[in-house]
Amino acid sequence: MSPPVLIIGAGLAGLTAARVLAEVGVDAVVLDKGRAVGGRMATRTIDGARFDHGAQHFSARSGEFREVVARWLDDGPVAEWYRSPSLTNPDRGVEPRHVGIGGMRRVPEHLAEGLDVRTAVRVDRLDLGAGAVTALVGDEPMATGRAAILTPPLPQALDLLTASGIWLGSATRAMLDPIDYDACLAVMAHL
User: Fold this and answer.
1) Radius of gyration (C-alpha) of the chain in whole angstroms
2) Beta 125-129 vs 132-137: how paired, if at all?
3) Which of 18, 47, 121, 150 has the fewest CB atoms inside 10 Å of its own CB, making it the most exposed?
4) Which is nearest to 19 in space by CA: 100, 157, 95, 11?
5) DSSP characters for the chain?
């Protein structure tokens, strides 16, 4: 049996990668530093009030994603919230906005069902050797795979590569360096 693919990050991208691999018979191990899956599709309950912070809703614009969302609507983790015209691209016309039933985290929880997902694992570095990639926390191996997929936000992914002594080629680095992230402040208020 071949080793799994190692995926860092249990947000929508990491879980989708693991789900696609599973559909073609490739095992994956997903590691995430958070207490729960979801990444930016996060839901918190504070004093009985539920807050979605990060993504509050989503639209399906590609044909492939519309097919996935149609399955989610049938399976139950997603509902149509409302329809509105696109503000960013008026040519798209009116489009449905979707939400996770019970909170936005329900979408990644649904994706994670049946997958090998391990949360509360903050990978410090990756060790490349002998045709495998090992995720290390301190000096302790957490999982080993035949390949790795990194899905955290770019600054975190670059920090992990640097800590691992993995250097990107100058052409790749030149494409990534201009990407900038802006800080965001989220206020969760229960009135």
Assistant:
1) 18
2) antiparallel
3) 47
4) 11
5) -PPPEEEE--SHHHHHHHHHHHHTT--EEEE-SSSSS-TTEEEEEETTEEEEEE-S-B---SHHHHHHHHHHHHHSSEEEEEEEE-SS-GGG-EEEEEEETTSTTHHHHHHHTTSEEE-S----EEEEETTEEEEEETTEEEEEESEEEE-S-HHHHHHHHHHTT----HHHHHHHTT-------------
Q: Tell me how far the alpha carbon of residue 16 is from its chain's centroid.
A: 7
Q: Which tokens in the block code for residue 74?
A: 């049938």
**pLDDT tens for each residue of the chain, 191 residues long:** 567 999 999 999 999 999 999 999 999 999 999 999 999 899 998 889 999 988 889 999 899 999 999 999 998 899 999 999 988 888 988 999 999 999 999 999 999 999 999 999 999 999 998 889 999 999 999 999 999 999 999 999 999 999 999 999 999 999 998 999 888 888 888 88
- The 132-137 sheet, strands edge to edge: 125-129, 132-137, 140-145
Q: Which amino acid is at 3?
A: P
- Pairwise CA distance, residues 99 & 25, whole Å: 30
Distance (Å, whole) CA 94 – CA 84:
5
